[in-house]
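This section describes the prediction task in plain terms. A model, or a person checking by hand, is given the sequence of a single protein chain and must write out its three-dimensional structure as a string of tokens. No templates, partner chains or ligands are provided. The sample shown here is typical of the held-out split.
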Amino acid sequence: MSKFPKGFLVGAATAAHQVEGNNTNSDCWAQEQMPHSTYKEKSGIACDHYNRYAEDIRLMREAGLNAYRFSIEWARIQPEDGVFDDAQIEHYRKVIRCCRKNGIEPIVTLFHFSSPVWIIRKGGWEAETVVEDFEKYVTYVIRALGSELKYVCTINEANMGLQVAAISRRYTMMAKRAAEAAAKNGGGEVQMGLNMQAMMENMKFQAMENAELFGTPQPHCFNLGGSEHSDQLTMKCHQAAKKAIKALYPHIQVGLTLSLHDLQPVEGGEARAEETWAEEFTHYLPYIQGDDFLGVQNYTRTIVGAEDDLPVPDGAERTQMGYEYYPQALEHVIRSVAKDFKGNLMVTENGVSCDDDSRRVNFINIATDGVANCIADGIPVKGYFYWSLMDNFEWQMGYRMRFGLVSVDRATMARKPKESLYHLGSL
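The expected answer:
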């Protein structure tokens, strides 16, 4: 018996750059090719989902899933400024129709981290021009495909820029402390000093390589962190996109997604937790309150101290990503969001990276029990999408992080569904 009401969407999620392969006109692809790249591997053909989407959608249908969240790649649709590729639009039309044929509801994300290189050369996500450029891209896509869609996410994890910037500041502070310690003791006890020196050398090379690739030593890519200005531009992009979508197809349900942590303050950490939640969520409310839904994306909790976030508790289970295995976080986040956002919610990402699939099944059980609890209490959650459909290219971490419900043989691209796929479908 289903734990969810009739019409609830149960599905899996992917992002174009991470699964399609050969996304050669994107900034992420360009970053991967740099001699001093921060990426541990190159994406290459990724999971070859661009060519194997029908097989992957069929696997979802056979397992019992009824929805699929995937992204349309801006760098494919618009490889050059002012140039739109009709053949690529037809590709995504085929993906959407393949979903429909298999009884799968397509949930389209218009932007999932990767930008066309030409956008970055124009100033990227710090340039005012990105708003008009994004609106033109969205208008082109929706004019062509909008009649076949019910749900559209404009921007994936619109708050990622501020989160990456915060992590960078924290890392820089830690590196400075380590360098000072190394200077005091000659470096014999703190090997990070040597690693930091090598990293600084790499940064010099990266600046030159960025200048050659993007026309600037400091490109403003969405996935490299942003400022308050770029955060505001991201909201303007969302609002411009929503207006364009509704003008063309008022029936389409429009929202964006946010990366949200279950912030658990210890004594003295309450003020920091409130400040972090404001940066992560509440300051976006004026821009999203009129949206049809909000995509909630959560993976773990953060224990907040008075001066800094605390490490994972001793003895706690960790995922391959290094953070705490804590599926209870999703319910906590949904309840926190629902206090202020009064529209429909959709869990657009939630998952775990691990090799033991029984732990993935357990994670799904606990997380979806939490969703069901929220629904029982009247919170309007309309769907749950596990991240990810398949073991894919986890950005800078490469292929080592395995979130998938389906394994992919890196040599042959053969798919092998895991028990967790069928378990999710049974819900």
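For orientation: The chain has one domain: 9-171+227-426.
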